[in-house]
Amino acid sequence: LTAQNRIAAWVVCSLPPGLFLLMYVMKPEVMLEVIASPVGWGMLMGAFGLEVAGILAFRKLLQLHI
Question: Measured between alpha carbons, how far is 17 from 47 in angstroms, rounded to an integer?
Answer without folding.
Answer: 10
